[in-house]
Specification:
With 321 residues, the chain is α/β, with parallel strands linked by helices. It has helices spanning 148-155, 158-163, 240-256, 265-275, 279-300, 306-318, and strands spanning 14-19, 22-27, 31-33, 40-46, 50-52, 56-57, 60-63, 66-69, 72-74, 77-85, 89-103, 107-114, 117-120, 125-132, 141-146.
Length: 321
């Protein structure tokens, strides 16, 4: 005859904290949360795996192993050795991992996603300011999605941006050079030390684009990266090799975003022009090539990766007279 399960308080390794209607849980081991005893969960931490199976959660979640959340997320910070999300609405400050983040076709509204490896479903949508990883993420429907380098180039305060969210660069150094690829997030703060403000609704996917969106769907909306006055590169004998090197580098960043898939015809044309060093043809046709690529993505309902947009911007600036 089987015995009934027995739950003993205090349970070994379990810490429960109540503050008014708020509940904080910490467990030394694997933790699965399926209910909150009628309380508002504000913080959950496990030294092992942490699985949260609630319809909606608004809490700081931290796991020494894999963090998995199955319901909607409406605030807080997410961190684990690995983080796994699927088809849900996610509104939070940050998602960080020591090794890997995998997100399915979710709707995101988040300041930063950062991990050595990030895998995003092509149908993931919403707005994320910074997506930083050591791998190429690939095209998605996310708006924003700056790398830290792009964010630094645009706003010049990437260190402050991360510090305000309790994060550092992947290499753990402020200067971004050397070191192992690990994230060093701050310890989760006490509930009364943090005020998380998240917008009430996700940006609609069909919302009209703004010209400062790095995924602008109009080439004219992009601000060309031009050389200083009088120093615009041209295909002369003295700087032809330097120009070709810069163009090839930008082209390489575009091509890597389509690895594992057929290269869009517009990118094949761009590659031909660069390989043939046809700078006059490139200068004349760059807008047509860009529009062709946009048409390719619009037919598939997937926005170009931010790296593609940025690299096209670089090429556009390089070939201007």
């Amino acid at each position: 005859m089987s015995k009934r399960p027995v739950f003993t308080l205090p349970a070994t390794g379990l810490e429960l904290e109540y503050s008014g209607n708020n509940l904080s849980i910490r467990f030394d081991g694997d933790l699965v949360i399926e209910q909150t005893l009628g309380k508002n969960l504000t913080r959950a931490e496990a030294t092992g795996h942490l699985t949260v199976k609630l319809p909606k959660v608004n809490a700081d979640l931290r796991a020494g192993g894999t963090l998995t959340v199955t319901g909607d997320i409406d605030g807080g910070k997410l961190h684990g050795k690995q983080v796994v999300l699927d088809r849900q609405t996610v509104k939070c400050v940050s998602i960080s991992a020591l090794e890997r983040i995998a997100i399915g076709p979710a709707k995101l509204q988040c300041d930063v996603i950062i991990a050595p490896e990030i895998v995003l479903d092509p149908k993931v949508s919403g707005r994320v300011t910074v997506v930083e990883s050591a791998n190429e993420v690939g095209p998605t429907k996310i708006k924003g999605g700056f790398t830290l380098a792009d964010y630094e180039d645009t706003f010049a305060n990437s260190e402050e941006f991360l510090a305000e969210r309790g994060l550092t660069r992947l290499d753990g150094r402020r200067n971004g050079a050397g070191g192992s690829e690990t994230i060093v997030p701050d310890q989760l703060p006490d509930e009364d030390e943090v005020e998380v403000e998240v917008e009430e609704s996700l940006v609609r996917e069909d919302e009209e684009e703004t010209t400062d969106d790095p995924h602008s769907l109009s080439f004219d909306d992009m601000e060309p990266i031009a050389e200083p006055a009088g120093e615009a590169p041209t295909a002369t004998a003295t700087n032809g090799e330097d120009l070709h090197g810069k163009l090839s580098d930008a082209l390489g960043k575009i091509v890597t975003c389509y690895e594992g898939a057929d290269l869009p015809p517009a990118i094949s044309e761009l590659k031909h022009l660069v390989d043939q060093r046809d700078y006059a043809g490139l200068r004349q046709n760059i807008t047509e090539v860009w529009n062709g690529l946009l048409g390719f993505h619009q037919k598939r309902g997937i926005r170009p990766h931010h790296q593609v947009t940025h690299a096209f911007n670089v090429i556009h600036g390089l070939v201007q007279e």
